[in-house]
Design goal:
Blueprint: H1 2-9, H2 13-26, H3 29-33, H4 36-51, H5 59-63, H6 65-76, H7 78-96, H8 102-111, E1 118-123, H9 131-150, E2 162-165, H10 167-170, H11 179-200, E3 203-206, H12 214-226, E4 236-241, H13 247-260, E5 265-270, H14 275-285, H15 296-311, E6 317-322, H16 326-340, E7 365-369, H17 374-378, E8 385-392, H18 398-410, H19 415-419, H20 426-429, H21 433-439, H22 475-490, E9 493-495, E10 498-499, E11 502-503, E12 509-513, E13 516-524, H23 529-548, H24 550-567, H25 569-580, H26 584-609, E14 613-615, E15 621-629, E16 632-636, H27 644-655, E17 659-663, H28 669-682, E18 689-691, H29 696-705, E19 709-715, H30 718-730, E20 738-741, E21 747-750, H31 756-768, E22 780-784, H32 785-799, H33 820-836, E23 838-842, E24 858-861, E25 876-882, H34 887-896, E26 899-900, E27 902-906, H35 910-919, E28 924-927, E29 944-945, E30 963-971, H36 979-982
Parallel strand pairs: 1-2, 1-8, 2-3, 3-4, 4-5, 5-6, 6-7, 7-8, 9-13, 16-17, 16-19, 17-18, 19-20, 21-22, 21-27, 22-25, 24-25, 27-28
Antiparallel strand pairs: 10-11, 12-13, 14-15, 15-30, 23-24, 26-29
Helix pairs in contact: 1-2, 1-7, 2-6, 2-7, 4-7, 9-11, 11-12, 13-15, 15-16, 15-21, 22-25, 24-26, 24-28, 25-26, 26-27, 31-32
Length: 986
């Protein structure tokens, strides 16, 4: 599939040939192909690809399959293999894609042997990333409906061919957060297509997508169902995924909607197509549970329950059962018999008698995918009419669809896979899903823990809870969050020095909201030198007692802090939005990161600080190594992560046994004050943690120069880090460490094998999320020449879909930058770029942004990273084109900047990714994903060179830099001899 993708997507033959050489010559064919019988099949396929005739492998080939493929490629050369793959894709295209155009597909349908079959056509393609993409898809759907309608010849909807529409193709931002835009921009187009289908008497189904898009899909579908202009038409259809836990409830909702609107809806029941994606998404977001079932048997049972409910309401829905599972189809046949007789089906949950009596084949229909299940479905044409789900599109659009189909049917639990396995008995193949569910001790799959328990399974990654997430695609959760955020904005907030637990002052200077400078969020009283002196003295006195508590007791306090943070998500997220200008999604991610820091460092405290480490030595001697806190740590944090980095620094120092004096950024003292009070509430002694808000020189400088500070943890600019390092070096007394993270000139390299849609998604997130104010944010994008124009066109369109506005609005993608100084810096850089670079795209600021510190996301094409003399901290992306032959020069350019924080790589060539990673110095390398959002304990974060001193925050060695080591050696023999040695026995 990777080779096929190369052929279909990569514009330059040289890169295709390199990928072919890499994949074919390095493949583990023995593992991939399996036993000799499988080898015969696969070798025959190769023969078909290469020569058009079947070739059986000889005994030598069967004995050494890897050598066979290596010799094959070496003998024929990559260009021949390239053409062979093209031929293979033609074969696959005929097998799985019904036609390249709707006209070709209709002509093929007329020639089909089963002339009684109906078709539901699906236009293949990725979801829209731009409004231009959406317009092209709309035009394609409209044209297809007209062609199907012209050929309908007055057939009823049940007898006519139909079309399936994917809503993500009709709008580039089809998501719950953009619900208001969907009403204005998507709904008119959707209605126009539905009206076309109604005029032509066609079926028109809304296709299923990811679980996160279910809510807006239901909303839009209901609007269509209730539209007076569409009344009297029974062609509106909905695709229901049985693997979603909400499936049976949605089935009931559809039935109720149909009866309320006095129409009969079509409902296509499928198992589901994004299962692995749903599992990963829920784990990343820390949801309480998965939106899908974790066992296939549960999905099969859900399918049966939904089938029973749909069949029990023939007045309201026309069920369309899409399945390649013989047991499922037989069960549907049995359920339909109960419905025809007007009986209540025994032992079928949710089955209700509608009173309808239907005796013909129009009660429901079976559906299958084109290219699959033909023999099976031919056995059921006596029961119901048959319809084929027929993909239409070019071979280029085939790959995502084909890979999904092969993953589903190649899974060990797939009926198709097991049916073709001669070792699987028939009784096992047709096992009742209810019996299968009851046979398991646990309903959920034991190898798939709940998202919250993701890190509780393996000792090497840490036995701790994953931070709880909030589903921002759930309308109820979002409503609760936005209401709480609004209340936070109405309340006065106070920051002042907190020394020995006492708040020293009230009132003070106003802290204004970056999104609206006329809105005061709270007030701050800045620390004076006497406050710093008292805090340092109190911390110095408290540190020995805090250290003596030991890792276990300190960990318990940090765990309690994590619990308190989780219980106050809404308040924290709201304050982050108003004081720091972060969107609700950014705020949620930041609070979760702070929770993870608390739990992760608690785990390390238990492991590394609870008991001494025994060391080897001669008999009669005891040797131990133990870790203690260094003393008092000064923690100096930035405004761009006012909670996560602040809490991360403080809890790391506390976990290691240090007392802490914390100085937050001048722009965000309110969040820091709230965090300190929470840590005190969790059990951190007031004299072990102090807060000193104020400016860098008055407060930070004093802490750094004072010998009572045993170390400094700092995140900020390289210039400030250098100044701190010089100050520490000039002090008398013990040598104090600095733990610094200082940003970077972060780059992403994209070669011509990369998938443009994925690249654009990751570039937009990496460069513009959080208004580009992340130390990990993408600053320079390198694009291989052959794909640069297409990617930049898509990037420009994707940027036009971004919504800039108030951070507490759930629909906002980009909020303000931190203050007017940041705006001025960005405007100055923009003016330079307008004179020296080519502008690719620039977002437009809405009028309501006039009172805040907003700057529009921009992208400029430059000749080289060397045009940038420093990091530009904001939503500003720079793009550089490169040739495949010039890769070495690009890597030298990146390394020559001196920064080494994050690096992104997009490529389907493992060799390319390995070479770039090996030859660059970045501390964090991300392949085929965005470069932001490092997860505590999973992606430990920190740079090298000008980007930081290490170790990595959220990593297993981070606490060690906050600690001092002591060894203990005891001569046990001195107490009267080595008793253990004498008692060894024979």
């Amino acid at each position: 599939m990777c080779l096929a993708e190369a052929l279909l997507r990569i514009p330059d033959k040289e890169t295709i040939d390199r990928l072919i050489a890499e994949k074919v010559r390095s493949g583990d064919w023995e593992t991939h192909l399996g036993q000799s019988a499988s080898m015969f099949v696969n070798a025959s396929v190769w023969g078909l690809m290469l020569t058009g005739r079947m070739l059986g492998p000889d005994s030598e080939t069967l004995a050494n399959q890897t050598a066979f493929f290596h010799r094959l490629t070496a003998r024929l050369g990559e260009p021949v293999v390239r053409n062979a793959i093209l031929q293979a894709m033609r074969i696959l295209g005929q097998q799985y894609v019904f036609g390249r155009t709707i006209g070709e597909a209709m002509r093929r349908a007329k020639r089909a042997k089963q002339s009684h079959q109906r078709y539901s056509f699906d236009l293949l393609g990725e979801g829209a990333r731009t409004y231009e993409d959406a317009e092209r898809y709309f035009a394609a759907y409209s044209s297809a409906i007209n062609e199907l309608g012209d050929a309908n010849r007055g057939n009823s909807i049940d007898d006519a061919n139909g079309i399936s529409v994917k809503l993500s193709a009709l709008h580039p931002r089809f998501e719950h957060a953009q619900r208001h835009r969907l009403d204005v921009e998507l709904m008119p187009k959707l209605k126009a297509l539905a009206m076309q289908a109604k005029r032509h008497g066609l079926g028109f189904s809304i296709d299923a997508e990811e679980a996160a898009r279910l809510e807006p899909t239901l909303d839009l579908f209901e609007c269509l169902a209730r539209d007076p202009d569409l009344q009297g038409w029974n062609g509106l259809g909905f695709v229901l995924q049985a693997y979603q836990k909400r499936a049976s409830v949605v089935a009931q909702w559809l039935i109720a909607l149909a009866r309320a609107t006095e129409q009969r809806l079509m409902v296509r029941l499928v198992k589901g197509a994004y299962w692995d994606t749903e599992i990963k998404h829920a784990q990343e977001r820390g949801f309480l549970d998965y939106p899908v079932f974790t066992r296939k048997a549960n999905t099969d049972l859900s399918y049966e329950v939904c089938a029973a409910r749909l069949l029990a309401a023939p007045d309201a829905v026309f069920p369309q059962f899409a399945s390649h599972n013989a047991y499922t189809m037989c069960l549907v046949e049995e359920l339909s018999e109960f419905a025809r007789e007007g009986c209540v089906a025994p032992d079928q949950p949710g089955f209700k008698n509608s009173g309808a009596r239907i005796s013909d084949k129009r009660m429901f229909e079976y559906q299958r995918l084109h290219g699959m299940g033909e023999l099976l479905h031919s056995q059921f044409d006596r029961v119901a009419q048959l319809r084929v789900y027929a993909p239409v599109g070019s071979h280029r659009d085939l790959l995502p669809y084909l890979v999904r189909r092969l993953l589903e049917n190649g899974a060990n639990s797939s009926f198709v896979n097991r049916f073709l396995n001669k070792d699987v008995e028939v009784d096992e193949l047709v096992q009742d899903p209810l019996a299968a569910v009851r046979s398991h001790r646990n309903v959920r799959h034991p190898a798939i823990p709940k998202p919250r328990e993701l890190y509780c399974q393996e000792e090497d990654v840490g036995n701790r809870l994953n931070a709880t997430g909030i589903d921002l695609d759930d309308p109820h959760s979002v409503a609760v969050l936005t209401d709480a955020a609004a209340n936070v904005g109405k309340q006065p907030h106070q920051a002042a020095p907190i020394v020995n637990g006492e708040l020293l002052g009230t009132g003070g200077a106003s802290i204004c909201c970056p999104a609206d400078r006329e809105l005061a969020v709270g007030q701050v009283v800045e620390a004076v030198p006497a406050n710093a002196d008292s805090a340092l003295e109190g911390a110095l006195m408290a540190q020995p007692g805090w250290n003596a508590l030991g890792g276990e007791q300190r960990a318990a306090i940090l765990d309690e802090a994590a619990r308190l943070l989780e219980s106050r998500y809404a308040d924290m997220i709201g304050l982050i939005a108003f004081e720091a200008g972060r969107t609700l999604a950014d705020g949620l991610a930041e609070v979760r990161e702070a929770v993870d820091f608390c739990r992760y460092y608690a785990m390390l405290a238990r492991r590394q600080f609870s008991r001494p480490l025994s060391l080897p030595g001669p008999t009669g001697e005891r040797n131990e190594l133990r870790l203690d806190g260094r003393g008092v740590f000064a923690c100096i944090s930035p405004w761009n992560f006012p909670l996560a980095i602040f809490v991360g620094q403080v809890t790391a120092a506390l976990a290691a046994g240090n007392a802490v004096v914390a100085k937050p950024a001048e722009q965000t003292p309110l969040i820091a004050a709230k965090a300190v009070r929470l840590l005190h509430e969790a059990g951190v002694p007031p004299d072990a943690l102090h807060l000193l808000p104020g400016d860098g020189e008055t407060v930070g400088g004093r802490l750094v120069r004072d010998v009572r500070s045993a170390g400094v943890a700092f995140t900020g600019s390289i210039e400030t880090a250098r100044w701190i390092n010089r100050q520490l070096g000039q002090r008398d007394g013990a040598i104090a460490p600095i733990i610094a993270e200082t940003g970077g000139q972060n780059a992403m390299l994209v070669d011509s094998t990369a998938l443009p849609e994925q690249v654009v998604d990751d570039v937009v997130a990496s460069a513009f999320k959080s208004a580009g104010q992340r130390c990990s944010a993408l600053r320079v994008l390198y694009l291989q020449n052959e794909i640069a124009d297409d990617v930049l066109q898509m990037l420009s369109g994707a940027m036009r879909t971004l919504k800039i506005g108030c951070p507490w609005d759930p629909a906002t993608d980009i909020g303000p930058v931190i203050d007017e100084g940041a705006v001025e810096m960005l405007h100055c850089h923009r003016e330079v770029m307008l004179q020296t670079a080519r502008r690719i795209a620039e977002c437009e600021l809405p009028s309501q942004c006039g009172r805040g510190s907003f700057f529009p996301p921009c992208a400029f094409e430059i000749e080289s990273m060397r045009q940038l003399d420093r990091e530009v901290f904001g939503p500003m992306l720079h793009v550089v084109r490169f040739s495949a032959q010039g890769l070495a020069a690009v890597l030298d350019e990146i390394n020559g900047s001196g920064y080494a924080l994050t690096l992104g790589i997009h490529s389907r060539r493992e060799g390319f990714a390995e070479e770039v990673s090996r030859k660059t110095t970045a501390g964090n390398v991300y392949i085929n994903r965005n470069v932001i959002g490092a997860v505590v304990g999973v992606n430990p974060f920190g740079g090298r060179g000008l980007s930081g001193t290490g170790p990595k925050a959220g990593g297993p060695r981070y606490l060690l830099r906050f600690a001092s080591e002591r060894t203990l050696t005891e001569n046990v023999v001195a107490k009267g001899g080595n008793a253990e040695l004498f008692h060894l026995g024979n």
